[in-house]
Amino acid sequence: MEAIAVSLTLEGEVDRIFENGFFQALHSRTIDINLEDNPYPGLSAVRALATALKLRYALSPRLARYIITTHAQVGSEAMAAAQESHYGWVRFRKDHIKDMASYLQKQLNANPDEPVMLPQLQQQQLTLWE
């Protein structure tokens, strides 16, 4: 869902489009996973969560299972640390990652073949002064 590649002719016209599910994701508003064998599974899982929340897209059942499995294998702490290492900041704290993995599991238990829509995060405004 993050990119497509276009091959151009020497004249600058489109020769081929390499989209690997991009247009299907746009149409269905569902993010899927292309390559489960990933050297950074924790970061990949967190990035999928962030993308789904940002776009308000659902996660495919396969991607939801990947996130649950990754969480079980590497843990919330490693997934939070992957964000810090890659981005320099943490969007999802370890307790939130744990809650999301639990939420995904409950949704898949109820409807194993249906895409999972993530609950939107509540934005909080800090009161700086009265």
Detailed description of the structure:
The chain is mainly alpha-helical and 130 residues long. It has a domain at 33-117. It has four helices and five strands, in the order E-E-H-E-H-E-H-H-E. The protein has helices at 22-28, 41-55, 61-87, 94-110, and strands at 5-8, 14-18, 30-31, 58-59, 116-117. Helix 2 (41-55) crosses helix 3 and helix 3 (61-87) runs antiparallel to helix 4.
- What is the helix content? 40-55%
End-to-end distance, in Å?
43 Å
* Strand-pairing-aware structural class: mainly alpha
- Please provide the count of β strands: 5
What's the story with the biggest beta sheet?
A: 3 strands, mixed
Strand order of the largest sheet: 3-4-5
Q: What is the gyration radius calculated from CA atoms? A: 17 Å
* Percent in strands: 5-15%
* Low-pLDDT stretches: none
Q: What is the molecular shape?
A: globular
| Helical stretch tally | 4
- SSE order: EEHEHEHHE
Average of pLDDT: 89
Question: Main traits of this protein?
Answer:
12% strand; globular; three-stranded mixed sheet; mainly alpha; 51% helix
Task: Quickly describe the structure.
With 130 residues, the protein is mainly alpha-helical.
Topology:
Layout: E1 5-8, E2 14-18, H1 22-28, E3 30-31, H2 41-55, E4 58-59, H3 61-87, H4 94-110, E5 116-117
Parallel strand pairs: 3-4
Antiparallel strand pairs: 1-2, 4-5
Helix pairs in contact: 2-3, 3-4
